[in-house]
Write a structure and sequence with these properties.
The complex is a heterodimer of chains A (about 375) and B (about 150). Chain A contains 10 helices and 12 strands. With about 375 residues, chain A is of the alpha/beta class. The longest helix of chain A has 27 residues. Chain B has a single domain, classed as TATA-Binding Protein, CATH 3.30.310. Chain B is built from 3 helices and 6 strands; from the N terminus they run βαβαββαββ. Chain B has a 4-stranded antiparallel sheet. The chains are: A alpha/beta (about 375), B alpha+beta (about 150).
Chain lengths: ~375, ~150
Amino acid sequence: MPSRIQVPEPERETIAIGLEGSANKLGVGIIRHFPRPNKNSHRPPAQILSNIRHTYITPPGEGFLPRDTAKHHRSYVVKLVQQALKQSGIPIDDIDCVCFTQGPGMGAPLQSVAIAARTISLMWDKPLVGVNHCVGHIEMGREITGATNPVVLYVSGGNTQVIAYSHQRYRIFGETLDIAVGNCLDRFARTLHIPNDPSPGYNIEQLARKGKHYVELPYTVKGMDVSMSGILAFIDGLANDIFGGKAKYADDGSEITREDLCFSLQETIFAMLVEITERAMAHVGSQQVLIVGGVGCNERLQEMMGIMARDRGGAVYATDERFCIDNGIMIAHAGLLAYETGYRTSLEDSVCTQRFRTDEVFLAWRND
Amino acid sequence: MLDAAHKKIRVFTNHFTYSYFSQFCFYSFQIAVFRITEMSVLPNKLTLAIPFQNYRHASLAYKALSPDPLLKPDQFYMEMSVISQDSALVDDKHEEDIGATKLVVEFAGASDRVLRVGVNGFFESLGVIVECFNAFDGGVLESVVDGKPVVFE
């Protein structure tokens, strides 16, 4: 188990550097926290000193493989750290801790970035802080949007979870039973040979805007959970039929296009997400929804979630691509919150883990 | 095994190398037995001595590499040690003052292919570490090893 040291809340500014590389994005960010002016006040907003990212983009029709992604991260990580330091304009001495993503994610890319984090932590003699990727997303979303106690929908290429806070842990209310929402979208983009630049999900979103006809797809909500793989197999089959020369027709007689398929896929899976999120809100009694993760910057998802939240007298909180898509700043932020409560990751405990559940993390920094 | 020609100091105890085994084996005696078995059973062997400018860099590389466990120790096994040619005791000197230190790595694999893949993986990780040294700590590697220039990247 990681070591825990009891220290009082810092009365000075603290600065952390965060390294993220759990999937195909490599991110480095530097953040500054300010102390609370007095015991009863809130902490002033964090200051983002730098937040840079380099994405490993594969050709259309191809996904990113762990080995190649790790190679990408190894080639860029040191350059990104240098650039982040330069952009922030702060000397290395001012940094309090080095934070890195410990999981969940792809093993080889995580390990490549962890090696760099360990090395700079040892060289600069700064403590190492291992961060749970999901907790990073949630904490950054809360920091940016100011949502106090939201139900969190965490949707990305590797994760789909509905989360609510209770007793110093982020509890998972519902999740995907097979593949993540983003994975479903990415793989459909591969079937359609849509470019992966800037991201497959973004390109699907653009196509979906031009879709006019809804094609009925399986709707697979299982209690609080969802299942995506059947939908993907179904729509892949449809797409292969259409592009194989077997045209499909909508009710008004017009041919179903790939734009219609993208539109139908988004509408179906986002409706499922809205349903389980609404149920979690009813359970928890919360009026706020916070959407985090790469799929969270999809404007259609934000719009659909907004309609539901307004009906319940609440609001939806979302961030833009700088903070939604994997980034280093969220790792620095969540790591610094843990650091301020005395959390350190010893060298022996700095091994990355592909499976690291959101509810495994004890949130010493939250006492509500 | 290690080249006995130099006067060496085994700087680290086995603590770092075997931290992941220590969860399973409480007695160093058992650890030693396990290690000897793995090293001697696997037929394909390779020993590398990687030179660093000083003790600090060699030991940093050692520390950064050591936490990651070997995924299949019965297929591929690796053991690192930091060896300084400086005759003075390490404890008496500042880390940066101890010059010319080697990171000695002994590899053993079940087949030559496994050995090759494992050694390549090791070099990939070491590349990141050396790049960190170059970027944030000035020059690191001796440019020449055994009369031949060493080029990283």
